[in-house]
Design brief:
Blueprint (H helix, E strand, L loop, with lengths): L2 H33 L11 H7 L3 H30 L3 H15 L2 H12 L4 H6 L21 H26 L1 H10 L4 H30 L2 H6 L7 H9 L5 H39 L7 H29 L1 E3 L9 E2 L2 H4 L2 H34 L12 H4 L2 H15 L5 H26 L3 H8 L4 H12 L1 H17 L2 H7 L6 H8 L5 H37 L10
Antiparallel strand pairs: 1-2
Helix pairs in contact: 1-12, 1-15, 1-17, 2-12, 3-7, 3-9, 3-12, 3-13, 4-7, 5-7, 5-13, 5-24, 7-9, 8-9, 9-12, 11-12, 12-17, 13-24, 15-18, 15-21, 17-22, 18-21, 18-22, 19-20, 21-24, 23-24
Keywords: Cell membrane, Membrane, Transmembrane, Transmembrane helix, Transport
Protein name: Inner membrane ABC transporter permease protein YnjC
Membrane topology: Multi-pass membrane protein
């Protein structure tokens, strides 16, 4: 390639980086200026003084801190416990197959299903009523969501534990777990000691970034907090969303978003200090030489915890499907007495319009993310750009309210708010990191000799890319596509703020409709929102195998012929 061509490719690569970081820089600036009273479109005033004087701020801050930290520690604990207790057993393969469908379901759909399961008129109460409880009406002793935020914590643990578990499972082959366990057992250590002293210290640095992303999400989530979180006080992110819609409180909302970002940074620092403390304690314990005993109790706890998560998730999804076809379901009946299809047919126009908008935005976002990731990784392979893995995860580490409040203000100032492509661009911002994360390792590990052999036979660069590299990476490309669809479908806050209500999707309609009393409509929306990413994951699972079988049959056509008798 000529020098001019290389310079052009480098310029395009840095343009991609600029487009990716542009909303981050402008968004943070657009949030900070109103907080300091420097926004020209707002009345002068100190947003920090306004938000700190709000009596709801401190309770909301405590609520966000408690739910976010507790859920993150539970996610980490259950993930490590599952690895120690289930890995190497017959349940491990089954568990790996059951996790991706749960990951595919959006957060809002899981939250709605959890409410249908745990509410006073939910499925659990119906199963034991009135035989065991004597209740002929829904009890009034508890409310879901509860005031303590435990329903939100349960929802976050159910949704995020499979994410961290799959991230950890993907790193195990590089750690040579079986060999480490054999060496530890040879030295007389119990299996739990082998994990805690030989494997987990090497595994944790590999999943640290994933855990940090989970912590940032749990502290600042909006859609699940609206559905499952307490109402008085709400979480800080929900409180800021109520303030940003009031022009007189815009500066206070921006200041609160800055404080929320500072809270996340403080939690990151606290997490690092806790890591140092645990590393010091682990080092002292390793030097003690204690071998330990069996882990029968812990094994049962780990397996029970994951079975409980799986059953709760699958039950929540099943309840969404049941409610979407229910006509009559009186309490305390354990099963609907009448079924109907009118929940879908009579609301087809209400359901299809947001479904079509969701699908078009998701597919467009997917194509843009795939093209961007392939272009960057290919330029990186040709040594035209450096490896910048950390940059791609910046939007995932910043609270969405802290970033999108300012980005929305910038789009309003530029006159591009509410545009369809603005929504797509913001979805691309949150989808591209996951696509690069999935494609980076297989793209870098693909042997270049295949391309060299094709070029020696006269194939050009584009033909090698299209006919050699991309087909050989078909499986990770399909996996990245499924994840991109799932991430885009689940985006609530970017669609709500960037779309200005002009492009309703299934995510925004689901959260908006939650305040109504029609469970059938809510269930139908949740089923549709879950169906799109589930179909994408099914396609990602089936298509590579189908292509492999098709190629094998083309190479050996005699295998398809009927035997001669």
């Amino acid at each position: 390639m000529s020098v001019a061509g290389q310079l052009l490719l480098r310029a395009m690569a840095w343009l991609l980086i600029g487009l990716f970081l542009l909303p981050v820089v402008l968004g943070l600036g657009g949030t900070l200026l109103p907080a300091l009273g420097l926004a020209p479109t707002l009345a002068p005033g100190n947003g920090f003084a306004q938000i700190l004087s709000d009596p709801r701020f401190v309770p909301a801050l405590i609520c966000s801190l408690s739910t976010g930290l507790i859920s993150t520690f539970l996610v980490l604990g259950m993930t490590l416990l599952t690895l120690v207790c289930v890995h190497g057993t017959r349940w491990w393969t089954w568990l790996g197959a059951a996790m991706p469908p749960i990951l595919a379901v959006p957060h809002a759909a899981i939250a709605i299903g959890l409410i249908f399961l745990l509410s006073p008129s939910g499925a659990l109460v119906r199963l034991v009523s009135p035989e065991l409880t004597g209740w002929l009406r829904p009890p009034t002793d508890w409310v879901v969501p509860d005031a303590g935020g435990w329903t939100l914590i349960i929802g976050l643990v159910i949704k995020e534990t499979p994410f961290l578990l799959l991230a950890a499972a993907a790193q195990l082959p590089a750690l040579n777990v079986d060999a480490s366990l054999r060496i530890g057992r040879t030295l007389g250590y119990a299996p739990a000691r082998c994990w805690s002293r030989l494997i987990l210290p090497r595994l944790y640095p590999r999943i640290r970034l994933t855990l940090i992303i989970i912590l940032a999400f749990n502290l600042t989530v909006v859609d699940m907090a609206v559905l499952l979180g307490p109402g008085n006080p709400p979480t800080l992110a929900v409180l800021l969303m109520s303030l940003v819609n009031d022009p007189g409180s815009r500066a206070a909302a921006s200041a609160g978003a800055v404080l929320l970002a500072m809270l996340v940074v403080i939690c990151f620092l606290g997490m690092w200090m806790l890591e140092c403390l645990m590393a010091f304690i682990a080092k002292r314990r390793r030097q003690s030489g204690v071998r330990g005993h069996g882990i029968t109790l812990f094994r049962r706890l780990g397996m029970s915890a994951m079975v409980l998560i799986l059953l709760t998730s699958l039950s929540s999804l099943a309840l969404l499907l049941v409610w979407s076809f229910t006509r009559r379901w009186r309490f305390p009946d354990a099963w609907p007495s009448q079924w109907t299809l009118t929940n879908w047919s009579s609301r087809a126009d209400v359901l299809l319009q947001p479904a079509w908008t969701t699908l078009t935005i998701a597919v467009t976002t997917l194509l843009l993310a795939l093209l961007s990731a392939i272009a960057w990784l290919e330029l990186e392979r040709r040594s035209l750009v450096p490896r910048l893995d950390g940059i791609w995860f910046v939007p995932l580490l910043i609270p969405q309210v802290s970033l999108l409040f300012g980005w929305q203000a910038v789009t309003l100032w530029a006159g591009i708010d509410g545009q369809w492509w603005t929504v797509v661009f913001t979805h691309w911002l949150y989808t591209l990191p996951y696509v690069i994360l999935i494609l980076a390792v297989p793209w870098r590990e693909l042997a270049p000799e295949w391309g060299y052999a094709a070029q020696a036979l006269g194939a050009g660069y584009w033909r090698v890319l299209w006919c050699i590299r991309l087909p050989m990476l078909r499986r990770p490309l399909c996996q990245a596509s499924a994840v991109a669809i799932a991430v885009s479908v689940a985006q609530y806050l970017p669609t709500l703020l960037m779309g200005a209500g002009r492009h309703p999707t299934l995510a925004t309609e689901l959260v908006t409709s939650f305040g109504g009393v029609d469970r059938r409509m809510i269930a139908a929306l949740a089923v549709l929102q879950s169906l799109l990413p589930l179909l994408a994951f099914v396609f990602a699972l089936i298509y590579p195998r189908w292509r492999q079988l098709r190629v094998a049959r083309q190479k050996n056509p005699s295998s398809n012929r009927a035997p001669v008798r």
